[in-house]
Amino acid sequence: MTAVVEAPASFEAELPTGRVGLRRAMAAEWTKLWSVRSTMWTLVATGLAVVGLCALSTGTVSPSDIIDDPTRRSLIGIFLGQLIFGVLGVLVMSAEYGTGTIRATLSAVPRRPLVLTAKVLVFGVVAVVVSEILAFSAFALGQALLSAKHAVGTSAAVAQRVQQLGVKVPHNVQAVLSGGSASLGQSGVLRAVVGGGLYLAVLGLLALGLATIIRHTAGAISTFVGVVLVLPLIVQALPISISNAVARYLPANIGLVMFSTHGAPDRVGPAFSPWTGFALLVLYTVVTLGLGCWVLVRRDA
Question: DSSP label at 267?
Answer without folding.
Answer: G
